[in-house]
Fold these 2 entries.
Entry 1:
Amino acid sequence: MTTNAEKARELLRLHTAPELLLLVNVWDVITARVVADTPGTRALATASHSIAAAHGYPDGEQIPRDLMITAVGRIAAAVDIPVTADLEAGYGDAGDTVSRAIDVGIVGANLEDQLKPLPDAVRAVEAAVAAGASAGVPFVLNARTDAFLKAGDKDPEAVLADAIERGRAYLGAGASTFFVPGKLDEPTVTRLVEALGQRSVNVIGVPGSLGLDTLQRLGVARVSYGPWSQNVALTALATLAEDVYRGGGLPEGTRKLN
């Protein structure tokens, strides 16, 4: 794959294929290369939280957009497989942000709704989709709702209904898939897929989430891991430091991957 359009078409194919797409999120060039070189990897996803943290910023569009675009561009340039980027809520201009991401080799993106009023969120999706069309790239937009993450003490049925309404609206506006982060149980995922269609719903893997076999059976398109892959790496680093301070050393089985 050499062009953005080819990579975008492959990324879309991976979402619509019968097999569940698994994306282990990365946050810099070395993590991208390690994951890309791992057998079974077919595409990469960045994690905005992890990239922001690596640069000393909190999550939530606190990192400057230019720095985020540079970071995801370096990742895309380091590998020869499709890369989808977490572009948060679009940094105030979803269309322009997606255009700039495409310019640096990104062929798909997460776009958060931050539970904004539905018409505003739909306009952001439309702008992002239009940016891909303008660039001649079948951009794979993964429109995300924060309905479950920000549910608080709302009635679960109302939360699910809001998520389904938003999913239908975003898919209708041209989004390729609908991302519903949160720790979701099987009945909830089942109803989301029934309402929005097979291979239309994406979820995140978190501690205690549904198993991959179950998600495959339910018709989910993809599972990504957001900041959790960085937390796995940081846990290993913290464990090494703790062991060294107790008089130990490198753990058995450590591989030299860079």
Entry 2:
Amino acid sequence: MLDATGPDAIFRSGLANQEILLPKCADCGRYHFFPRVLCPHCHGEAISWHRASGKGRVHTTTIVRRKPDHGGDYNICMVELDEGVRMMSRVDGITPDDVRIDMAVTAFVGEADGVPAVFFKPAEV
């Protein structure tokens, strides 16, 4: 059972409010993801939460091939946010074949299986 007050609950609560919140360590000043109680960089315990810029770049991507009657192809990507953390997600709004490494993207909160989740779209140039 998940802790209703722990880091995962804080992150999910932000998503429910259409905010992407990232944990930041007050001891070393670095962001980290996924949410946790100790900083993975310096093991500090002074964690605060900050709204993500939402700006990032595709670090890596792949295409999952499916038959059209099963939803068609989609991409899975790892995005590095300007804050220095990486998140696995997908880029929406373009075909999977058009997602490119180093493509500028912008995060948004969408829904996956009825639950808020982080997705990306190509950044406006």
